Amino acid sequence: METFLEFFREILKGIMREIVAFFFRKNVLEHKKTTPRHVKHQSGSRKKDNL
Q1: What pLDDT score was predicted for residue 20?
Q2: Residue 14 Ramachandran class (φ > 0 left, ψ -120 to 50 alpha, else beta)
Q3: Could you write out the DSSP letters of every residue in the chain?
Q4: In whole angstroms, what is the distance from residue 37 CA to residue 30 CA?
Q5: CA nearest 25: which of 35, 14, 13, 17?
Q6: What pLDDT is recorded for position 21?
Q7: Which residues of the chain are under the pLDDT cut of 50?
Q8: Calculated CA dihedral for residues 17, 28, 31, 23, nearest 10 degrees
Q9: Is the full-model pTM beyond 0.85?
Q10: What gap in Å lies between CA 2 and CA 7, rounded to an integer?
Q11: Terminus-to-terminus CA distance in the chain, angstroms?
């Protein structure tokens, strides 16, 4: 009985590690692109320069 509980405990630890790793990857590693690369400035002055 005790070996079954240890085995079951190890399975639960593995499942919890995978869940934590999944959420860590999803929330931390995939959201590194928080800063905008290019700011688009749309103004009327560009039209005046091309005339």
Answers
A1: 94
A2: alpha
A3: -HHHHHHHHHHHHHHHHHHHHHHHIIIIITT---S-S------THHHHHH-
A4: 16
A5: 17
A6: 93
A7: none
A8: 30
A9: no
A10: 9
A11: 86
- The residue whose two tokens read 């999944």 is 22
- Both structure tokens of 15: 């499942």
Residue 22 is predicted with a pLDDT of 93
Amino acid identity at 29: L
Interatomic CA distance for residues 51 and 49, integer angstroms: 6
- Supply 33's token pair: 């692109």
**The residue count for the chain:** 51
Placement of tokens 């919890």 in the chain: 16
- Tokens 């005339």 map to which residue? 51
